[in-house]
Amino acid sequence: MPQTRRRSLFRPCIDLHNGEVKQIVGGTLHEDDASRLKTNFVASYPSSHYAGLYKDHGLEGGHVIKLGPGNDRAAKEALATWPGGLQVGGGITAENAREWLDAGASKVIVTSYLFPEGKFSLDRLKAVSTAVGKDRLVVDVSCRRRGDKWLVAMNKWQTITDMEVGEESLGLLAEYCSEFLVHAADVEGLCQGIDEELVARLGEWVTIPTTYAGGAKSVSDLDLVDRLSQGKVDLTFGSSLDIFGGTLVKFDDLVKYNADALRQL
User: Fold this and answer.
1) Which residues are within 8 A (CB) of 99 and not within 5 positions of it... i.e. 6 or more apart?
2) How many beta carbons lie within 10 A of that of residue 130, not counting itself?
3) How far is CA 226 from CA 10, 85, 99, 198, in A?
4) DSSP string, 182-210
5) How many angstroms separate the Cα of 111 from the Cα of each of 56, 61, 205?
6) What are the pLDDT tens digits along the chain (265 aa)?
7) DSSP assignments along 18-53, one per residue
8) Which pairing describes strands 107-110 and 149-154: parallel, antiparallel, or unpaired?
9) Following CA atoms 262, 219, 201, 175 in sequence, which dihedral angle do they give, to the nearest 10 degrees?
10) Torsion angle of alpha carbons 93, 12, 246, 39, nearest 10°?
């Protein structure tokens, strides 16, 4: 019997802003103007509640993202709830990355550190990879579309860098990390559908595990991502999900989807 290829899976998230679990519209985060922030959901539960929920259902590979300052305590509470079960990103550098692994993160996620003044630094990538080891490093190549290209965006997706997302750049990054996280910042938090072209391109380009986030609004989006990427890209749900106040997707349905997908392997 021929082996069934890998299928795309649901990957959970915990987005932190001002110490609280939130779901926000990705393109509205501005360091210099808080009034422009559009928030879809503010949790009444602490970060540890969501970490425990993911642990109870064996949903490994989820990411905890610190959106700005004031989130370290909440991030560490989540990591302590499930040591080795969650990745962490936001403000990660070569100097502090090991601290977050010691706090319980399975991997650390970096973006802005790699782009001083918006310009990619291979030396910084090598430094953080050496500090934690390739196997425990995730590079967040979150991006914004400009014409027919996608450019990496940093500083909570407000600063466009000099790196185009493509086969060449992802190939270079993959030499020093073990996974990619891709937030499609233009559609993040809108619940209006994924960037299908980006997902398809990622399926062509990536050679290491990759998780896409942005716009997912239906359980069927998992089948769509699976088809477009040939099972190479996983999918995160945020604002559409019932545990984050959404009405379009039920958490239990995603848990069942993962169980069914893994059973078929």
Assistant:
1) none
2) 12
3) 11, 23, 35, 13
4) EEBTTTTTT-S---HHHHHHHHHH--S-E
5) 29, 18, 19
6) 445 899 999 999 999 999 999 887 555 555 554 555 677 778 889 999 999 999 999 999 999 999 889 999 999 999 999 999 999 999 999 999 999 999 999 999 999 999 999 999 999 999 999 999 999 999 999 999 999 999 999 876 788 999 999 999 999 999 999 999 999 988 866 678 999 999 999 999 999 999 999 999 999 999 999 999 999 999 999 989 999 999 999 999 999 999 999 998 7
7) TTEEEEE-GGG--TT-GGG--EEEE-SS-HHHHHHH
8) unpaired
9) -40
10) 0
Q: Residue 87's closest CA among 111, 110, 63, 112?
A: 63
**Alpha-carbon distance values, 176 to 43, 98, 123, 138, 194 (Å):** 35, 16, 11, 9, 28
Widest distance between CA atoms in the chain: 58
**Token digits of residue 101:** 């692994």
Q: Any idea which residue has 């001002």 for tokens?
A: 18
- Is 153 within 8 Å of 184 (Cβ atoms)? no
Q: Which helix (H) or strand (E) holds 172?
A: helix 167-174
Supply the pTM of this predicted model. 0.93
Q: Enter the DSSP assignment of 160.
A: E
